Amino acid sequence: MAFSKITQVAAYAPEQIISNDDLSQIMDTSDEWISSRTGIRERHITREETTSDLGTQVAQQLLKQSGLSAQAIDFIIVATITPDSLMPSTAARIQANIGASNAFGMDMTAACSGFVFALATADKFIQSGLYQRGLVIGAETLSKTLDWSDRSSSVLFGDGAGGVLLEASDTKHFLAESLHTDGSRGGSLTSGLVGLSSPFSDTTSDEKYLQMDGRAIFDFAIRDVPKSIKQLVADAGLSIEDLDYLFLHQANIRILNKMAKKLGVSMEKLPANMMAYGNTSAASIPILLSESVDKGIIALDGSQTVLFSAFGGGLTWGNLIVKI
Ligand code: ACO
After folding, report:
1. Burial zone of 258 (CB within 10 Å; 0-12 exposed, 13-18 middle, 19+ buried)
2. Looking at ligand 1, which atom is closest to the CA of residue 252?
3. Which pTM was predicted?
4. How many CB atoms lie within 10 A of CB 257?
5. Of the residues 112, 173, 252, 319, which is catalytic?
6. Which of 215, 255, 285, 309 to mutate to test the pocket of ligand 1 (most atoms within 8 A of CB)?
7. Which DSSP helix (H) or strand (E) runs through 223?
């Protein structure tokens, strides 16, 4: 039986940084309101780079770090809710940009849980024994989906990309997973609604922009997610103390504080960087992981046990416990 292992991590964000004060120039908001409720102080917003451009930077960095040629890559999975186009996929664009001619590529849509769902999927491809290595990338340009006249949602998000190289390994690194969807609550966070349009159908309305019931999402995050984490840790025969770090989706510092309390772990175990990026949806966990590797918190030598936990639109939520 084949196993998979994360062997490289990389991230990239567009150069332009927009602070809370910058936002207060274009809407009725303030640094005090945003940072006290969310922890967010600034975010990267793209000027011209697209989602596939951001993902390409990550893919190139992963190849450079590994010393592998692009031809050695068997697959590329991109988690995104902000693709350049539905067709070709973001993964196909990245495959062309890096010249990974032997790789198949596809996008996955599970909103902020996208990276965790994609990583769980990639692990199965490698477990099948059919593929040796793949790139799993979360890449987003959420700025293009925001209604910038809606101060309650537009201040929360940012653009960026992060990803990992996943390779076959003789030893088990992916210890446990749980993935969840509750479509019945999907209406509390929506984006990119495309209405019907043809000479043979009734036209229905479009709603391009992200819309969110902030309170409902907050409650979902602090109720359902810690419960699922506790369940998974128990099912894996572990205790929460066995986790060296918990990499949680970077939506909001208040959500992280509440989760830490519910899980009985100190905030020291929950790296956070939404202060500098905002919520980058599927990119948030790999960007955080990459920063943690850069800071030396994560050694990537198989000696640490971490949890990846993401939650978002769908509603979706998912957890992976990984030896990293
Ligand atoms: N600046 C100033 N005032 C604002 C802003 C803003 N940017 N946005 C809203 N307000 C106002 C509201 O209009 C309201 O005013 P009113 O009382 O006069 O009507 C007031 O602030 C309070 O609004 P609330 O919605 O009650 O504020 P709350 O304390 O609930 O915080 C927030 C809102 C931050 C969105 C919170 O609900 C939250 O964190 N929700 C989670 C949402 C989230 O993280 N979503 C990310 C996407 S999903 C995901 O990644 C999981």
Report:
1. middle
2. 44
3. 0.96
4. 15
5. 112
6. 215
7. helix 214-235
Per CATH, the architecture of 3-171 is what? 3-Layer(aba) Sandwich (3.40)
Q: Where are the domains positioned within the chain? A: 3-171, 175-323
CA distance 261 to 175: 24
Asked if 246 and 269 count as a contact pair (C-beta separation under 8 A), the reply is yes
Find out whether the beta carbon of 151 lies less than 6 Å from any atom of ligand 1.
yes
Ligand 1 center to 255 CA (angstroms) = 13
**164/6 Cα distance (integer angstroms):** 6
- Measured distance CA(73)–CA(103) in Å, rounded: 6
The CATH number that domain 175-323 falls under is: 3.40.47.10
Give residue-wise pLDDT tens across range 152-167: 999 999 999 999 999 9
Q: Smallest Cα–Cα separation from 216: which of 194, 190, 247, 248?
A: 190
For residue range 32-71, list pLDDT tens digits in order: 999 999 999 999 999 999 999 999 999 999 999 999 999 9
Angle at which helices 31-38 and 253-263 pack, to 10 degrees? Answer: 20
Which residue matches tokens 């019945």?
A: 184
Fold: same for 3-171 and 175-323: yes
* 121: phi then psi, degrees, rounded to nearest 5: -65, -45
Radius of gyration over every alpha carbon of the chain, rounded to an integer in angstroms = 19
Amino acid at 246: L
